Amino acid sequence: MTPKQRLIAALNLEQPDDIVPTFELFGLHKELTGKEFVPLQTLSGRDLENGIKYNADLYVEIAERLDYSAILLDDVRVVEELVANGINDTYMLMYNNGDGTWRFWMDVTGQHDLIQTDVLEEECLRMIDDPQAFHQKLTRDADAAIERTRVLIDAGVEAVFMGADYATTKGPFLSPPMFTEFIVPYLDRIVAAHHANGAYVIKHTDGGIMPLLEQIVDCGPDALVAIDPTAGMDIAEVKRLVGDRICLGDNVDMAAIMEGPMERIRESALYCLRHAKPGGGFIFMSANSVFPPIKLENYQMMLDMRRQYGRYDVEIEIPGC
Known about the structure:
Blueprint: H1 3-11, H2 29-33, H3 45-66, E1 70-73, H4 76-84, E2 92-95, H5 117-129, H6 131-155, E3 159-163, E4 167-168, E5 171-172, H7 176-182, H8 184-196, E6 200-204, H9 213-218, E7 223-225, H10 235-242, E8 247-249, H11 254-259, H12 262-276, E9 282-283, H13 296-309
Parallel strand pairs: 1-2, 2-3, 3-6, 6-7, 7-8, 8-9
Antiparallel strand pairs: 4-5
Helix pairs in contact: 3-4, 5-6, 6-8, 12-13
């Protein structure tokens, strides 16, 4: 199978014929390749053309070296360059910012940010004091997410990564009834629109989402990722509950990847493979994303476990699980 075919099998709740697919929101490109991506915002003419090609080539180098099934992108020009070179035959091109639902760590301008207490308080007060106006904002946000994503899909993206966190390690930020009112209609609508436009949908949310699990799955994304053990999420339990309805990914403990030691990373990776790999419908990933200050060797230890124990065509008894 090609890397892309592995991911398609998993998203269709099938079992690849060789090895479980993997990809990440990956930020250790400098550590891995010694290269940085070129900022394209201020370039024009030949410099812009060269920058687009350079970035496209770097994305492919990373995918090749890490055996990724998907390349996550946010620039339509780079998508077009990859398609022109046939890279989408081997790797699934994925838009990395296709969400438009409300999350507690996004400020009112729609820019990803750390939690701003004053902005958060204002948003929550608007939600309670003027729900009609808040729903109007949510509608605008959903419209914007659908439209910006459609442009990427038209250019050749075949999957959409929807990254909005609905919980902390202590549980959901909104109660289940509030989630039903303020998140579900828009999540359902955005997912349906991405599907109608021709893309798979991968939903990412960190935190303790067990009280929201059924509602999220019912909105119809093809995969749910960031199943967070630091928040008490157990991939074995989630697989038992919804693994016949949705592909699952992300569960290797971020605390282990961040802090080590290697044995702790090994144990977490093997637990995921032991409980989530059987039968397919699984993507092997970290429980969040891989960026500094994570050490490259820690992440590579996690990938070593996939190479050793992630195959479907050989029965392997995983020790210690």
